[in-house]
Amino acid sequence: MFTGLVEAVGQVEDLTLGKQSAVLTVQTGFSDPSLPLGASIAVNGACLTVVKKTKRSFTVDVSPETLQRTSLQNLRTGTLVNLERSMRLKDRLGGHIVTGHIDGVGIVHSIDKQGDFTFFSVQLKPQLASLLVAKGSVAVDGISLTVNACNRRDFSVAVIPFTLQHTNLRARRVGDKVNLETDLIGKYVYKFMKQPD
User: Fold this and answer.
1) CA distances from 44 to 98, 103, 120, 130, 134 (A)
2) Residue range 62-84: mean pLDDT, rounded
3) Contacts of 89 (CB under 8 A, 6+ apart)
4) To 5 degrees, how large is the angle CA 143–CA 147–CA 150?
5) Are 158 and 123 contained in the same domain?
6) Do 130 and 162 fall within a single domain?
């Protein structure tokens, strides 16, 4: 379980793609004790398990399901990735409840700076769009954000300067793919309402 508050931005050191899975190594400033073997870590919002580590990096296995459902297969050496360690029960929930289970991939459609804020518009499939509501929560590459507006084709978020500077959004360009996780509570409500009597 995560909060959507990015703790650090790492850099892809290596991505080895297999036939259906992958092995990903990320350079990070997390100290050894804070990221033990077997720990859960969100990489661009996808919950992964640390299987190897050094003082400056960690390695995770990427399953076929995760590889297919996320944008992780598009990572390249040097790409910036958002990192968040799993939440502890005593932590404050500063963002929203984020599971690290990606619902799908969106595409950055536009980036528009207006004053101090940067507005991102993201295209997505109608199935995902139906799970978004204006002023609701969405995780974009693991970042907890508020939906400004949404329709069946896209949604927009306003990013404050701090978030832009301290996440991989600072390197995002139009056409980039981003991982999307819709609000967990909203998904349950949607499923309940769609079920026949």
Assistant:
1) 12, 13, 16, 22, 23
2) 96
3) none
4) 130
5) yes
6) yes
> Is residue 129 classed as helix, strand or coil in its secondary structure?
helix
Percent of the chain with pLDDT over 90: 77
- Domain of residue 150: give its range: 104-194
State mean pLDDT over 59-75.
95
- What DSSP assignment string belongs to 30-95? --GGGS-TT-EEEETTEEEEEEEE-SSEEEEEE-HHHHHHSSGGG--TT-EEEEEEPPPTTS---S
Q: What is the pLDDT of residues 149-171, one digit of tens each?
A: 999 999 999 999 999 999 999 99
- Dist. CA 111–CA 9, nearest whole Å: 20
- The answer as to whether 99 is a domain residue is no
Tokens 């995770």 belong to residue: 60
